[in-house]
UniProtKB/TrEMBL annotation:
Coiled coil: none annotated. It comes from the Eukaryota. One of its GO terms (biological process) is N-glycan processing. GO terms for molecular function: alpha-1,4-glucosidase activity; carbohydrate binding. It comes from Callithrix jacchus. Residues 73-292 form the Glycoside hydrolase family 31 N-terminal domain. This is Glucosidase alpha, neutral C.
Length: 358
C-alpha cells in the first residue's frame, strides 16, 4: 500500500533543464540561413577563372545577388580523398581556419582535367576511377566513382557564406541605402543577431558582423548514417525534419536526456554513410558551433504508363541530404570515398592520427 502511494519519478524528471541550452530557434545563424535559403539565390562558377597550381585547382564562385566572389580550391589527397575549401577571395581580415586537427599537411596527388560538357569542369585522379564533376551554373559538384554518382555537393542550392563587414555604425548613409540583400532595420538586426546576439545574460558582440557558412550534401542510395558525436541518441542518425538539428558544441551536460539530439561533452564533425557495397565519409573541418540537418528520401517504385501496351517500371533512387551549418570560419571538408568501411577509417586516420603515418 505504501509503495503504491509513493510518487513515481522518471529518468526524464532527473534530466537537465533543456531551457538553459540553445535549440535551433534560439540560434541566430540558423534563422538567418533558413530565411536566406527561402529566397533561392544561387551561386555559379566562373569557368574562365579556373587555374591549376602545384597542389590544387582553383576557381571563383559568385553569388547572383551580391556579386561578391568566393575562392574555391579542390585538392586530391593520397588514399582516395578529396578536399574542397571555399573562402572569401578578399576577406576584410583572415577568417579562422582550424589548426592542429590535421597532424601534418596532407600529401596531395595531381588532379587531371578531363573533357566535359560546355559549362562544366571534370577533374580525375591519376587512375581515372574517381572524378569530381563540377557544374558551373548553378554551382554543383558530383563525386563520381566508376561512372556512378556517389555524392553531390550543393545540389539543393544551400551554399551559404556571410562575408565579413566593417562595423555598421561606420557605414555611410549611402552604403546603407545600397544594401539590398539584408534587411538592416534595427528590429531585424536584433532578431537575426547580425551584430549582437544575446542568450540569457551572455552578449556576443560581432565586430565584423555575422560570418556563418553552410552547405548541403546529397548521398545517393544511402539511408544509413552514423557519427557526428557526441549525442545520447541511437547509433544510426535520425531524420531531423520534425525536430531540432543535431548540434555540435562542446558542453558539460550533467544528467542529459537520452534519445535527444542536443550536444553533450565533445563534438566531432565526422559523418559516415553506408549502403550495400559502399561506405563513404564526410569530415567537416570546422570548430565553431555547428548544426547538422538530415533528411532521407526513401526509394519508391512506380509504373510509368504509356500509350499502348508498353509499360515501364522505374525505381526512384533513395537519397539522404545532409545540411551542415557553422557559425563562423571557412568551408573546408574532406570527402572520404571508401569504398569499404576499413578504407574510410584508414582515410580518416591518415588525416587525423599520426600513428597511421608512421
Amino acid at each position: 500500500m505504501e509503495a503504491a502511494e509513493k510518487e513515481e519519478i522518471s529518468v526524464k524528471d532527473e534530466a537537465v533543464d533543456k531551457n538553459i541550452f540553445r535549440d535551433c530557434n534560439r540560434i541566430a545563424f540558423y534563422r538567418r540561413q533558413k530565411q536566406w535559403l527561402s529566397k533561392k539565390s544561387t551561386y555559379q562558377v566562373l569557368l574562365d577563372s579556373v587555374t591549376t597550381v602545384e597542389d590544387s585547382t582553383r576557381f571563383q564562385i559568385i553569388n547572383e545577388a551580391s556579386k561578391v566572389p568566393l575562392l574555391a580550391e579542390i585538392y586530391g589527397i593520397e588514399g582516395n580523398i578529396f578536399r574542397l575549401k571555399i573562402n572569401e577571395e578578399s576577406p576584410l581580415k583572415p577568417r579562422y581556419e582550424v589548426p592542429d586537427v590535421l597532424t601534418s599537411k596532407p600529401s596531395t596527388v595531381r588532379l587531371i582535367p578531363c573533357s566535359g560538357d560546355t559549362g562544366s569542369l571534370i577533374l580525375a585522379d591519376e587512375k581515372g576511377d574517381l572524378k569530381c564533376h563540377i557544374t558551373a551554373n548553378p554551382f554543383k559538384v558530383d563525386l563520381v566513382s566508376e561512372e556512378e554518382v556517389v555524392m553531390s555537393i550543393n545540389s539543393l542550392g544551400q551554399l551559404y557564406f556571410e562575408h565579413l563587414q566593417i562595423l555598421h555604425k561606420q557605414r555611410t548613409a549611402k552604403e546603407n541605402e545600397e544594401e539590398t540583400s539584408v534587411d538592416t532595420s534595427q528590429e531585424n538586426q536584433e532578431d537575426l543577431g547580425l551584430w549582437e546576439e544575446k542568450f540569457g545574460k551572455f552578449v556576443d558582440i560581432k565586430a565584423n558582423g555575422p560570418s556563418s557558412i553552410g552547405l548541403d550534401f546529397s548521398l545517393h542510395e544511402f539511408e544509413h548514417l552514423y557519427g557526428i558525436p557526441q549525442h545520447a541518441e541511437s547509433h544510426q542518425l535520425k531524420n531531423t525534419e520534425d525536430g531540432d538539428a543535431y548540434r555540435l558544441y562542446n558542453l558539460d551536460v550533467y544528467g542529459y536526456q537520452i534519445y535527444d539530439k542536443m550536444g553533450i561533452y565533445g563534438s566531432v564533425p565526422y559523418l559516415l554513410a553506408h549502403k550495400l557495397g559502399r561506405t563513404i565519409g564526410i569530415f567537416w573541418l570546422n570548430a565553431s558551433e555547428t548544426l547538422v540537418e538530415i533528411n532521407t528520401e526513401p526509394a519508391v517504385e512506380y509504373t510509368l504508363t504509356q500509350i499502348g501496351p508498353v509499360a515501364a517500371k522505374q525505381k526512384a533512387r533513395s537519397r539522404t541530404h545532409v545540411h551542415w551549418m557553422s557559425e563562423s570560419g571557412i568551408i573546408d571538408f574532406f570527402m572520404l570515398t571508401g569504398p569499404t568501411p576499413s578504407d574510410v577509417f584508414r582515410q580518416y586516420s591518415r588525416l587525423t592520427d599520426i600513428g597511421e603515418k608512421q
